Amino acid sequence: MAPRLMQRPGPAASLVIRGARVLDPAAGIDEVRDLVVRDGLIGGDPEGLEVIDGTGMVAVPGFVDPHVHLRTPGREDLEDIATGSMSAAAGGFVTIVAMPNTSPVVDNAAVLGTLIDRAEREAAVRVGFYAAITVGQKGGELTEQVEMAELGAAGFSDDGHPVADAGVMRRALQYQRITGLPLVLHEEDMALSGRGVAHEGAVASRLGLAGIPPISESIAVARDAVLAEYEDGWIHICHVSASETVDEIRRAKERGVRITGEVTPHHLTLTDAAIASLDPSRHKMNPPLREESDRQSLIAALLDGTLDLVATDHAPHDADEKEVPFEEAPFGITGLETAFAVCNTHLVRTGEVPLDLLVRRMSSDAAAALGLPVPTLADGAVADVALLDPEAVVVVGATGFQSKSRNSAWLGEELHGKVNLTIAGGQIAWRP
Amino acid sequence: MSRRSLLTIADLDRAEIARILRVGNRFAEVMERDIKKVPTLRGRTIINMFFEASTRTSTSFELAGKRLSADVVNVKGSGSSVEKGETLKDTVITLNSYLPDVLVIRHQSVGACQLAARHTQAAVINAGDGKHEHPTQTLLDLYTIEREVGPLDGLHIAFVGDVAHSRVARSGIRGFQMMGANVSLIAPPTLIPRDAEEALGVTTSTDIRDVADADVVYVLRMQLERMGPGGFVPSLREYAATYGVNHGRLRPGQRVMHAGPINRGVEISGALADDPKTLIERQAANGMVVRMAVLYDLLAGPSAGAEPAEHPIGAVAV
């Protein structure tokens, strides 16, 4: 069964991006030329079309984020499908998939169906939805996954509430043979995480914060890789944060397990040194920011493909939730609107990650890993394009956010990288 | 104008700590007079916000403010709007509207004082935030050691017990080191924070016999209320037998400290707690003059803005 992606109807884009660096690593395209979009498709006759000056800019396949929180249903005050998908468009994303840890949880066809209907009316870019693995994300009974797969679920996840019981996970992997959809796993052994609120290490020890050890993540990945191997299943590991986890995924891939992994811009660019400010709005998230050695492992894993993609874990929260003492605040930061600029500023411009690899990991690789349609700039494809200005300086939040929330780790900071145009599913979704 | 705050002991440098301790000495002299009140902070407003249980810290802060002639208001978690669900941010904003000069905050959560400082013009003094820091405790401990034992330089101080949950230890380690002391931790492995040696610049041991190396043995309370389910030690009985500090584990001349409240028969034997040679009672007594010195330093000291530099304490302590 195939994931269903929804987008509101709109006019097909027709324009010419003049003189940009057209960069689609997966399709082997990297040249300065015009990029034509006609009637929502790549290529065609440029005659009579609006011309956008792309000088100094890079036109890439639009980004794909298989891990966002749209807070709908239940917390539409934090985000909804319209604002979350606009936030995605503003970040150059053409496809996003939302997690089911909402209120109520997306654990039955009725809730999923409502979301699909709303997304067909409201989504600025393609939006898909995961459904829960277990009822209420409580880790007990499996949800009615065939019914939800037939309705169009993009996969199954108990994100935020890891499946503690190995027997339940095993049954989910067996049942996966019917749906053929990925199990998207937040990996954490809650018995090891306990009341932890930050990476267990020197910084947390100095601050008196209860720690979340890296092994609480890697031990869960090790278990599920073994289960997936035994059941011949397909698992995707969310927001990898620790070098121990990278090692587990690498070993599993070497054994031939069908396992993919994602890493967030914040884990690639920040460490637990940042939490000394004790500002939960910027730096409290789960998994937590870890150490420089972890960060280096994550970058190396992104480069060598052990980690397949960059995902934001866009997690909107409002000031009322976040303006409390660090220990009491909920986990999570926003990410869609800053993802490219953060990675471009702190990975590409520092020479740690080449631009073409970043583009791959944010677009075609991200889509392919989760079985989503792969954006491409090849002639005849549906236009999924982000036009980036990698040199432009932006001050995060200076002109507001498309998201309803502003709990960004980079609020007020200068970054390099502006998204000047997003065409998603053949429609202009973002043009500031 | 936003005033200087005291959120962690690292907000002070060695010279500033020395200055506060000197001022504490002057206030100690004042406390020997018949009239124990000075007009130094007349017209200033101090709000003590105690969201977590406290006897020593709250009483000594209140008395410190009153003896400096400040207007002192006490807000407690119970009996205030906190019980109606008011957030810390809203409580701070409300109290800030009364234009206090100082907010003294005790709270159960790490980061509470940082949050408060973002929402007030007043100086914020951290009177203990969860497991994080308790800088005025460290100042009074330094004051006590200097007076009763001698200079900190080269002194060896061993913290014994529940380091993981102790804000007293976290501020103390840094403060004692700043003043030149060597600090070691002696605790069960389950109660030593991860990477403690690197994070805190201390040596660690799990053997109680290593107290022999210390000049000062600083006993930490077993903070059962912060441990939650799944104990860090099998039983208090085993803890007392393995790590409890008593006369038998000390050699003559070693001085014993405890920030209180004590669990008799757990981390410290009743007989040792009652021994007048320990510094425990001096710590409590010194808390008031040191907190007077902290309030003075923030509001009338050399870096408090409008006040003249090198303001002679003798002149105000009439």
Write a structural description.
- The complex is a heterodimer of chains A (432) and B (318).
- Chain A is 31% helix and 21% strand.
- Chain A is an alpha/beta fold.
- Chain A has a single domain (63-373), classed as Metal-dependent hydrolases (TIM Barrel), CATH 3.20.20.
- In chain A, the strands form 4 sheets. In chain A, strands 1, 2, 3, 4, 5, 15, 16 and 17 form an 8-stranded mixed sheet that branches. In chain A, strands 9-12-13-14 form a 4-stranded parallel sheet. Chain A has a 3-stranded parallel sheet with strand order 6-7-8.
- The longest helix of chain A is centred in the middle third of the chain and has 17 residues, at 215-231.
- The mean pLDDT of chain A is 97.
- Chain B has 2 domains: 9-134 and 284-316, Rossmann fold (3-Layer(aba) Sandwich); 150-278, Rossmann fold, CATH 3.40.50.1370.
- In chain B, the strands form 2 sheets. Chain B has a 5-stranded parallel sheet, covered by helices on one side. Chain B has a 4-stranded parallel sheet with strand order 2-1-3-4.
- Mean pLDDT of chain B is 91; it is low at 305-318.
- Classes of the chains: A alpha/beta (432), B alpha/beta (318).
- The A-B interface holds A 194-195, 197, 200-211, 213, 277-280, 320, 323-328 and B 87-89, 107, 109-112, 114-115, 118, 129-133, 165, 167, 170, 193-196, 198-200, 228, 230.
